[in-house]
Amino acid sequence: MTLQNDLLLRTARGELTERIPVWMMRQAGRVLAEYRAVRERAGSFITLAKTPELAAEVTIQPVDAFGVDAAIIFSDILVVPEAMGLPYEMIESRGPVFPKTVQNMADLSRLRVADAESDLGYVLDAIRLTKKELNNRVPLIGFAGAPFTIFCYMTEGKGSKTFSVAKKLLYTDPDFAHALLQQITDSTIAYLQAQIRSGVDLVQLFDSWAGILSPEQYRTFSLPYIKQICDLITDVPVTVFAKGAFFARQEIGQLSCDVVGLDWNMDPHESRELIPDRVLQGNLDPCVLYADFAQIRAEVKQMIDSFGHQHYIANLGHGIYPDTDPDKARCFVDAVKEM
Fold first, then answer.
1. Going by C-beta distance under 8 Å and a sequence separation of 6 or more, which residues neighbour residue 78?
2. Which residues does the annotation mark as catalytic?
3. Confidence of residue 85 (pLDDT cuts 50, 70, 90)
4. pLDDT at residue 295, rounded to an integer
5. Does residue 140 sit in helix, strand or coil?
6. Contact at 8 Å (CB) between 259 and 278?
7. Residue 71 CA neighbour count, 13 Å, CB half
8. Does this model's pTM top 0.85?
9. Rg (CA), the chain
């Protein structure tokens, strides 16, 4: 079926478009009162994510509330380790916690490569339901965590500023690290392929903790696994967003991806020079949305003037913060459209 608004999809494919498409990472979430109402009804984040009807409802909310040019399926990157046999809990005001972690080959032997259809069927059901209810209004984005970011949570057991437990394993047991990364990669490829079969129009890889690695470590423990994923996801455009990996932009741009996401510390002009053959996405500091409406519009204009009006997808440089005024988020989206 033909999309009524295929602006994002055409831009991601490298086509020239009549205006810049715009969406926001974490656009389906606590910033919207409508989301909070559904979350309260669900009783927990994990129940919400695992109930296809509710996940579809909150996926579509920002399309109606903000007028963004795409929906992104409501889920979590940590559904993959759970599907591999390592369940997690979502603790209020603390974030995700894994009661058990993976530390060695013996631990790894108790895990499995995830079967997307059986282990992650609730996400696929949510995708199919969302596609039906979107009724071809805008594209639907699927996603997964990049292998190194998932590795961090599976070995550390929780969020961290340094992920020193995870990084220690890169030095003390690199064979184990590579084995776990490969199992995550195999699971992620199968998962993204299943999302595509279920109807997503493009996919994004989130390497949220890329910036904690040195350039050499990133080339060893992250890029090769992202490359495997990009090489095998060929049916829809692929975006790679590696937060903090300013040092790897050129190498990421050489992967067989279509779009490179940038955080707010990555200069648009320099990024264009380093990545001349890919569509760029980003990179407004989410804190700009705390400013007044006039300053938001000025910051958006400066960002777009830096990136240019083609081969570019407007977005934030990371997920929108939950205490953002929805009217400020709407101002951001409207300002992009007015350009």
1. 88, 96, 145, 150, 153
2. 26, 30, 39, 76, 153
3. very high
4. 98
5. strand
6. yes
7. 31
8. yes
9. 19
pLDDT tens digits along 43-80: 999 999 999 999 999 999 999 999 999 999 999 999 99
- β-partners of residue 22 are 314
3-state class (DSSP) for residue 206? strand
Residues 6+ apart with CB under 8 A from 20: 11, 304, 309, 312, 313, 314, 336, 337, 339
Q: Map 50-115 to HEC letters.
A: HCHHHHHHHHHHHHHHHCCCCEECCCCCCHHHHHCCCCCEEECCCEEECCCCCCCHHHHHCCCCCC
Place of tokens 């083609």: 310
Using 50, 70 and 90 to split pLDDT, how confident is the model at 94?
confident
The alpha-helical segments, DSSP class H, found in the chain are: 7-12, 33-42, 45-50, 52-66, 79-83, 105-109, 116-119, 121-134, 147-156, 164-172, 174-198, 215-221, 223-232, 249-253, 268-274, 293-307, 326-338
Mean pLDDT across the stretch 244-258?
A: 98
Q: Strand 95-97 to strand 140-145: parallel, antiparallel, or no bridges (unpaired)?
A: unpaired
Q: Poorest-confidence range of 1-5, 15-19, 205-209, 242-246? A: 1-5
